[in-house]
């Protein structure tokens, strides 16, 4: 999965496998219907992405990018979440959803909303973004808009560069209906034999290795592009000589691409997973997108051969698959993109003198370092930490988790260098990271060949925590240097994902991580940690205990407040505890990017709860949990969202922040995010998200991400005046 092309490779697939919700009637003090539908909430998130594409105040190429993000997100939503609903229906596993409704009813609502959003998405392209690009010299043309000279030049190009790689497949008694790969773009073609008069059907796959939008040579000073499938469609005669082309249409199939491996029934997880990855390609169709001009005869054939229902057919104006706009969005036109932001090196990691070589270990020894990416550079902090550890002769061991990383990861290369230099290196590679399974298997094998101790975590659990531990010998003693983060060790996504990370030499954190790594790589069962909250055994209990304490403090008249930032808020037990806290008078602020099943602002249940969402040029990805604790704040950061899978079926870790300046920084982040002067979306008690980006006088509200980048870039190392 190309991480450059997704707003979050792990978001659209945020499905709780084997979902078994708590009994909605389990708490008699709360209304029975107190959760928003999780699937519709996800679609509401993608609608917020679409609203960014529709925003005329954003640069045109960024709007095109958001159109592509919406399309890619929705693809993964169908491949995993919709596929999961269908699987439960077809297999009889029709357990209630989190709103107490049968999956068949939820699927019907999801289908209706998805149809609505896809039509709105197509309209945003044709009526808003395409014209905005054209006004700035980037024109996506149709065949009808080309003159004869341009058509001839394109015919020459087609003959030389495209025709040789095309493979038309006939459908007749000797040629059965071909397999249609998931997410491929295809042309259905009806032809007539000029001699016999017999009509035939053929399928032509649009080559995925060619540019989705081809640039047309143009002397007018701008740039012109045409969709690849439209170009191919106008030279079908070259592919079917002697045949009369009667009709052609574009279609696209989405398949169930979820992967299921029974870890308890397999002796070799990698081999079982590789076998399942091959099966993924042949999952059943769950969505058929067709161009809106497709005739009933062709549609009937596709519906019959692909075995899809009417509700699974999405009739849309061309072009289909607007994920192809990623190519357009990469055009080098700085005036049509967001202003350039260059991450700065964390002030605490800067050397005391400008020309000195930075020493990450020395900086950490001076005090805990809280990193905030992408405002602060990943390369000069986390990456530099691992690279310095790999090269340092005093470092004896490095232990690290790898959930998703890039194909040319300097982190992995540093671990290989460390192992080859004789250091003890442990890499816990999560090969079950959805859509990154094959890439992680490849990296695991490369690490093993270099002498790295590679393990794959615990049976039945994904290891999602973001941890790195370095053991260094100093003055005859061993010291622990640790990193606990909210995001993956991925240099590419670190430039577009907002994440937090803690670098610390705290001995207790080091001992906690040592025990946790022993549990992950061996057979140790550690039940208690000092500065960490770890799932699946203790994270849920720890958070519920903190929420309950805030509830008690509020009832006793003591200072109480809860602030939580997550990607998804779904878990019923956590939500119910927040409802009870609200009823006790605790102010609760929820800052969520994606799914939120909690209903805020409901009298008698949640009137003290506010929910906000911030979307923009960076993907808000950090998870933060802040509790007032009667004036002694307990604040945690880590990798866990409030979902069943994170709390019950994953290894997750939160670390408590203790530095007063860091607690103030987290407090400032929440205050700014929840401020009415900050551009954001507000969730109402009716489940509707409303964008607030304009002040009463019509001026734009504060872009929090832009402001943070400017402020953090001006920070200076403590003690430095210039």
TrEMBL record:
EC class of the enzyme, as a word: transferase
Cofactor dependency: Mg(2+)
GO cellular component, one term: polyphosphate kinase complex
Gene Ontology molecular function terms on file: ATP binding; metal ion binding; polyphosphate kinase activity
Post-translational modification summary for this protein: An intermediate of this reaction is the autophosphorylated ppk in which a phosphate is covalently linked to a histidine residue through a N-P bond.
Domain PLD phosphodiesterase: 616-646
Positions annotated to bind ATP: 73, 497, 593, 621
Residues annotated as the enzyme's active site: 464
InterPro entries for this protein: PLipase_D/transphosphatidylase, PP_kinase, PP_kinase_C_1, PP_kinase_middle, PP_kinase_middle_dom_sf, PPK_C_dom2, PPK_N_dom, PPK_N_dom_sf
Enzyme Commission numbers on file: 2.7.4.1
GO annotation, biological process: polyphosphate biosynthetic process
Residues the record lists as binding Mg(2+): 404, 434
Catalytic reactions of this protein: [phosphate](n) + ATP = [phosphate](n+1) + ADP
Keywords: ATP-binding, Kinase, Magnesium, Metal-binding, Nucleotide-binding, Phosphoprotein, Transferase
Pfam families: PP_kinase (PF02503), PP_kinase_C (PF13090), PP_kinase_C_1 (PF17941), PP_kinase_N (PF13089)
Gene3D superfamilies: Endonuclease Chain A, Polyphosphate kinase middle domain, Polyphosphate kinase N-terminal domain
Family: Belongs to the polyphosphate kinase 1 (PPK1) family.
NCBIfam families to which the protein is assigned, alphabetical: poly_P_kin, PRK05443.1-1, PRK05443.1-2, PRK05443.2-2, PRK05443.2-3
Job of this protein: Catalyzes the reversible transfer of the terminal phosphate of ATP to form a long-chain polyphosphate (polyP).
Protein name, as recorded: Polyphosphate kinase
Organism in which the protein naturally occurs: Orlajensenia flava
Gene of this entry: ppk
């Amino acid at each position: 999965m190309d991480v450059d092309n997704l707003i979050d490779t792990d978001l659209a697939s945020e499905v709780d496998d084997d979902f078994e919700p708590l009994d909605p009637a389990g708490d008699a003090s709360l209304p029975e219907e107190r959760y928003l539908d999780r699937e519709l909430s996800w679609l509401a998130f993608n609608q917020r992405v679409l609203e960014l594409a529709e925003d005329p105040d954003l640069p045109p190429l960024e709007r095109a990018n958001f159109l592509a993000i919406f399309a890619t997100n929705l693809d993964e939503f169908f491949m995993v979440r919709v596929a999961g609903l269908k699987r439960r229906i077809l297999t009889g596993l029709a357990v209630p959803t989190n709103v107490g409704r049968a999956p068949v009813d939820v699927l019907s609502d999801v289908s209706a909303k998805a149809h609505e959003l896809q039509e709105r998405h197509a309209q945003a392209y044709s009526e808003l973004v395409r014209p905005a690009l054209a006004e700035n010299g980037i024109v996506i043309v149709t065949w009808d808009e080309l003159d004869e000279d341009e058509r001839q030049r394109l015919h020459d190009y087609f003959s030389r560069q495209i025709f040789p790689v095309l493979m038309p497949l006939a459908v007749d008694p000797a040629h059965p209906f071909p397999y249609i790969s998931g997410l491929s773009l295809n042309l259905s073609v009806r032809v007539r034999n000029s001699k016999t008069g017999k009509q035939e059907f053929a399928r032509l796959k649009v080559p995925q290795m060619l540019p989705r939008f081809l640039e047309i040579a143009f002397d007018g000073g701008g740039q012109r592009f045409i969709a690849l499938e439209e170009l191919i469609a106008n030279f079908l005669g070259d592919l079917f000589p002697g045949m009369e082309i009667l009709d052609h249409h574009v279609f696209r199939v989405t398949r169930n691409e979820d992967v299921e491996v029974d870890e308890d029934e397999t002796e070799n997880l990698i081999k079982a997973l590789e076998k399942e990855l091959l099966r993924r390609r042949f999952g059943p169709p769950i969505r058929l997108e067709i161009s809106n001009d497709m005739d009933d005869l062709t549609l009937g054939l596709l519906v019959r051969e692909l075995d899809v229902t009417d509700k699974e057919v999405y009739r849309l104006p061309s072009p289909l698959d607007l994920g192809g706009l990623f190519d357009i969005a990469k055009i080098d036109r700085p005036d049509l993109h967001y202003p350039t932001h260059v991450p700065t090196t964390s002030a605490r990691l800067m050397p005391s003198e400008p020309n000195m070589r930075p020493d990450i270990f020395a900086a950490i020894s001076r005090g805990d370092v809280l990193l905030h990416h992408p405002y602060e550079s990943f390369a000069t902090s986390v990456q530099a930490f691992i690279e310095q550890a790999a090269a340092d002769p005093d470092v004896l061991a490095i232990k690290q988790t790898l959930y998703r990383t890039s194909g040319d990861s300097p982190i992995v290369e540093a671990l290989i260098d460390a192992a080859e230099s004789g250091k003890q290196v442990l890499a816990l590679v999560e090969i079950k990271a959805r859509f990154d399974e094959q890439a992680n298997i490849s990296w695991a094998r490369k690490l093993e060949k270099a002498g790295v101790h590679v393990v794959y975590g615990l049976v039945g659990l994904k290891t999602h925590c973001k941890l790195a531990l370095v053991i260094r010998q100093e003055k005859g003693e061993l010291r622990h240097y640790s990193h606990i983060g909210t995001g993956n060790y991925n240099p590419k996504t670190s430039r577009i994902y907002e994440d937090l990370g803690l670098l610390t030499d705290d001995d207790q954190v080091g001992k906690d991580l040592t025990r946790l790594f022993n549990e992950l790589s061996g057979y140790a069962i550690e039940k208690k940690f000092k500065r960490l909250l770890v799932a699946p055994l203790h994270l849920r209990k720890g958070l519920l205990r903190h929420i309950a304490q805030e509830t008690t403090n509020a009832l006793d008249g003591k200072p109480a407040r809860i602030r939580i930032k997550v990607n998804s808020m779904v878990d019923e037990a956590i939500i119910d505890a927040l409802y009870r806290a609200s009823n006790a008078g605790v102010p609760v602020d929820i800052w969520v990017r994606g799914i939120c099943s909690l209903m805020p602002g409901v009298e008698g249940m949640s009137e003290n709860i506010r929910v906000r969402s911030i979307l923009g040029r960076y993907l808000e990805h950090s998870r933060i949990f802040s509790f007032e604790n009667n004036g002694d704040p307990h604040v945690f950061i880590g990798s866990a969202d409030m979902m069943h899978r994170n709390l019950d079926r994953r290894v997750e870790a939160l670390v408590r922040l203790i530095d007063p300046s860091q607690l103030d920084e987290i407090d400032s982040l929440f205050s700014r995010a929840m401020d009415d002067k900050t551009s954001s979306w507000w969730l109402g008690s009716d489940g509707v998200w409303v964008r607030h980006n304009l002040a009463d006088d019509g001026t734009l509200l504060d872009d929090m991400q832009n402001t943070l980048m400017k402020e953090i870039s001006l920070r200076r190392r403590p003690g430095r005046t210039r």
